[in-house]
Amino acid sequence: MGAPILEMRNITKEFPGVKALDDVSFTVAEGEIHGLVGENGAGKSTLMKVLSGVHAFGTYTGDILLHGEVQAYKHISESEQAGVAIIYQELALIPELSVYENIFLGQEISKGLAIDWNETIKQTAVILKRVGLDVNPSTKIKNLGVGQQQLVEIAKALHRNVSILILDEPTAALNEDDSENLLRLLREQRAQGVTCILISHKLKEIIDIADTVTVLRDGQTICTLDASAGEASESALIKYMVGREIDNIYPPREHEISTEVALEVKNWQAYDPQLGREILKDINFNVRKGEIVGLAGLMGAGRTELALSLFGNAANYRVSGEIFVRGTLMKFSHPHDALVAGLVYLTEDRKGDGLILIQDVKQNITLANLEEISLRGRIDNNAEIKVANEYRRSLSIKTPSVEQKVGNLSGGNQQKVSLAKCLFVKPDILILDEPTRGIDVGAKYEIYTIMNRLVQEGMSIIMISSELPEVLGMSDRIYVVSGGKIVGEMPAGEATQENIMGLATDY
Amino acid sequence: MFFRDLQKVLKENIREYGMYIALFAIMTIFTITTDGVFISSRNISNLLNQTGYIAILAVGMTLVIVIQHIDLSVGFLSGFLGAIAAIALSFWHIPVYVVIPLLLVLGALAGLITAFPVAQLGIPSFVTSLAGWLIYRGALLLVTAGTGTIIINDNIFNAIGNGYIPDIPGLSNFLPEMHKLTLLLGVAAIMLFIKSTLSGRKEKQAYDFEVLPQDMFILELVFVSVLIALITWVLAGYNGLSWTVVVVLLVVSIYHFVTTQTVVGRHVYAVGGNPEAAELSGINVKNITYMVFGSMGMLSALSGILFASRLQSATTTAGTLFELDAIAAAYIGGVSAAGGVGKIMGSFIGALVYMSLTSGMNLMGIDIAYQYVVRGAVLVAAVVFDVATRSSSK
Asked: Tens digits of per-residue pLDDT, B3-18?
């Protein structure tokens, strides 16, 4: 094993209200494959953003040393210059351009004022051979498969004489063959002296390929294991990843779950015409009145897709199967139908498709149920303010007034406005997608308390969450989703983080 | 205390009042530079009649821009429909009571056709409406090809663009130079305004909500009342209210009410603010798109009627550049190109500002070349002001 090529010392990064990284130290030796694992939200991505200059120097504390020299990247271009290349899960290629145009983007070979395309294509062929990709350099990116696109990204990075290659969940979207292919390529690159940081949820893969594994949890480094010496077994990694003590961050609740089934889904399938593949297969599940059902799984497992397809097929998939609400077969062709039937969906992306940031708190809260505050199509503005103030009080939304623009509120308060909007529909069944994503511990506790109150009042909640402790702490029953299928069901009492992770990561 | 309140209210609402202040400033400047001709009853009456067909288009365009779209076809659509009206009246001898509703329906249909590729296939409205621009231009040339300009002889139709509301009979000795019915309507408007504002304030107080301080409230009442009184007085000094003004006021009031007070209006702004969020809130974005373009088409027809009626004829170039005038008026009136923001009243005032510039500069005898430059400068200034004040207001 070589000398350290990268050292990150005592990195601390705070976002308003959240400490994303807390005194993290992380060392990578030259020429190794270093696995970085941790639950969603453990701080892996933040750490890599600090390394690449997405979070500029000065917005964090601590030192980054590359080849023993302190680095201060103000922008991602500076880290690229220094030889740090990140390949994200969402690829950064331009679909309408060819392979060679993408690889040389920003580093064009010029002959006089014009680009020397012949030389570019010649060099591209050499680079493609190096990553083992057998396609015509003139092929457009959009005509390549995801696995091939990934290889183009790597080729692009290698061309830039990268000293550290960082791959963020490179195999999440790949099938088994493509994954194997990619891992083989990484081994070959290691043999040629390329250093690589691999972030992955697929623990088997990490154990298989990594020399060293670092585990992050809650923004802290838990341990660094020597995988080549066999220290990193799957069970050891899971234990380190999830070994948080669950004490009182989940408020207790006392309620009786009725035997009445509020929602039942049978043989549910969905096909995404844009991706051109089946994204949900043979989904069967139910939720009873007064019950919180957790949908656990990794990102990309298909949980959000399931929620959207049930909620009036909001994403325009081709769906088949049956939805029963309180025993009645329903057919939803638009989210509006689902709302009328008492089903409501809280989005995971409150800024993207949840809230209207340029409108004020009251307009957002009442949007999905304006009929409630209007008479013959005319809105009663005073009733609206009254309603909004009621939710502001009951959900303790911190805002100077209900006429404040939602865009000016903090993440936790935006989430509460989003929740208030869902509750104002007076639903029977509430689908919460990552209800506590990106909000601080205090606001999380308040949201949990509200959820408890709602089920005590007889509502049913389906909670999608990538945070296992949250799933365990809040659910009555848990379904594990993986690869668009339900791969397991268990009462919360029998569930452990280990067995959920085992099911969710079992590809 | 009074001035502190005034300063606070002005500062908090600078964006809203900005346009009124701009209109006031422009009118004052032109009144001075034209030795008072600009503010004369006759000129103001003409100005309002000229503004009519642009204001109507600007009202519809406001909603189109609010939902993040654009409609370039409206100018020639209004010209084309105006020609259809002329043909129906002069050649086919269809009664005017049939022609007008028929045209409004045709206009709405044209709007729905423009919206179809936009709503169903997600094709940019710039493209589909540009196609409409070409098609209606061709259609206008086609229907006027044989005849050239078509003269309209229908008195009722022509009165829409040129006529004035009748006066109260038998009062010729009382205020002989004035239009009595106009004055009466003005007084009624002031009373209605005071009554509705008072009851709105009382209702708010009953809920314990925040209201304007008493002195500011009285100031607002007095200010708006005096404004209405002045406009009424000026108009009554010529021929009184024209039918065009009546039509424009009706359209503006209806659209103002719908956009600010109703569920449908709220849905339009929600779609403009965030279409994905609107869809997940149970709003059918497609239907809203159809509705907004349909209304735009209908208003294009109305605009075409006003224009043809004002000229008492249909010409081969009717409607040229109307769409750009309407878009400019909407932007001057504070509509945001990013969508979700824009008021009907704003666009109406924007249209007035825009047409005041034309009218004032014409009176001053300024060359048309400079007029375009000035209009362009005012458009940029208005949008810059709007963007600059947007961040500071709440």
From this structure: 777 787 777 777 777 7
